[in-house]
Amino acid sequence: xxxxxxxxxxxxxxxxxxxxxxxxxxxxxxxxxxxxxxxxxxxxxxxxxxxxxxxxxxxxxxxxxxxxxxxxxxxxxxxxxxxxxxxxxxxxxxxxxxxxxxxxxxxxxxxxxxxxxxxxxxxxxxxxxxxxxxxxxxxxxxxxxxxxxxxxxxxxxxxxxxxxxxxxxxxxxxxxxxxxxxxxx
Length: 185
What we know:
Elements: E1 8-11, E2 18-20, H1 27-34, H2 42-53, H3 57-70, E3 72-74, E4 87-92, H4 96-102, E5 113-116, H5 117-120, H6 127-137, E6 144-148, H7 151-159, E7 163-166, H8 173-183
Parallel strand pairs: 1-4, 1-6, 4-5, 6-7
Antiparallel strand pairs: 2-3
Helix pairs in contact: 1-3, 2-3, 3-4
């Protein structure tokens, strides 16, 4: 039986490629950071926080950018030395501000696609998210390995025809990817 080759890997952002680390935040900023993912679009987040904190949109955007630039630590900085070269995508239910920050990191040069629900208006587990992701990668779903730590997102991606890896954050990402590839070669 022939196995379907992987041409691209799409990583979830927080919990897979990055760990969340609480930076030196004010209580308000920490509350905002813990609330990431509550809404799909950037604008929904901004509108909610403007109302909740009686702030201007500009103040909220500045805070969101600050939080996103201090919240994440790359889980495995040398991962691309340990796994084969593919097309890589960041695929997250996150604000576009997090992807803006990610693009400033040297490791982002390995990525071809930066896919954030905040700017797309689509979020996992919506099948349209996975369809749009595959189109952005210019790959058939069966040639994309989707790696996420949330089971319902993994199951939704699988239902859309993607290959999937449900990642346990206690494990080493590169080892799990290489094990998956060896088992599916």
